[in-house]
# Entry
Amino acid sequence: MQHTDLTPEQLCEELLGRKLADVDAEERRVLQRIASGQVMGPDAQEEAALHAGFGDRLADRVAAVGGSWGFIIAFGVVLFGWMLVNSRVLEQFGLHPFDAYPYIFLNLMLSMLAAVQAPVIMMSQNRQSDKDRIAARHDYEVNLRTQLEIIRLHKRMDHLFAFLDKQACAKQGEET
# Structure
């Protein structure tokens, strides 16, 4: 949108027919951006990346890996390998299984992994929720700006048609 010489208060009254104090904070912010000629801010991904710390990025990576088929398949292979090694296979080499059935140490390791992985994945989900809220706010601003620009163009067209009507009436008055 182009820079306008109107204040946010004037834009609000002209386009929405209301006082600036009567609109919500989001609409007020959009009107202020339009009046200043400011373009859209960063999108949801950019804004989230600007505020992401090391822990946030780590949580996102853990969630990405932990929620993939590659992880599930690799983890299944590790579990199967653990059970295979701790069965009778080691006894053939004269060794005793270090975690024989019922695999108590494996159970402990799985419980510890779940205890750590679950909150980390929840942190990542919370960050995704924040990104979704930012994206929704961004979409709302785009929609509101579009609606305001359509209203502005509609009013300009009305003024143009009124001017053309006056011109046509003046020509008809001259001809008669």
